Amino acid sequence: KNEVEQSPQNLTAQEGEFITINCSYSVGISALHWLQQHPGGGIVSLFMLSSGKKKHGRLIATINIQEKHSSLHITASHPRDSAVYICAVIPPGNQFYFGTGTSLTVIP
Amino acid sequence: NAGVMQNPRHLVRRRGQEARLRCSPMKGHSHVYWYRQLPEEGLKFMVYLQKENIIDESGMPKERFSAEFPKEGPSILRIQQVVRGDSAAYFCASSLLAASGSYTEAFFGQGTRLTVV
Prior knowledge:
heterodimer, A: mainly beta, five-stranded antiparallel beta sheet
């Protein structure tokens, strides 16, 4: 049983398209991270959320605590957005549970 | 303020050798998390430490793996008698301790890629 489910697993988009990645979780949480990982690269935290919505540039993240669901949106996608996006939830106790990731490829 | 520093970035070990992975948290951070990413798999939690104390090691394999976070110096993840199945990327993250004891934002390192030959 996975505490965190992400969809889709793989996503290919044309440059400029609006992209949505979804994350559902089954545990109570203190916070949720959206992470980005480029091939062979490190992990960067894009957002930490505990409620509502956050926006950084072309990236928007939302969370609905009651429905145990979060979404990551990318507006006007660009080839440099190509990466794996990982949802990570942090229950009380501070352990991390990770989704399996969404591999995004943006084609010029 | 440097971010979370992990070294080495790449480590090659022969079967049966020991691997020592180091993680220097961000300045002022007292909590360190280690997790592992096996090839073609997702990230898995291994251990959560504060200085001189292991808080949660429920994700650590029972044998050959150990972790510490001493009062001074980096956190160390130690793998004894490595086997091919230990080949993976090992990441750490660090965070502050909130006054309430609740979670504060973690910052992630670049990872150490261990290859066992």
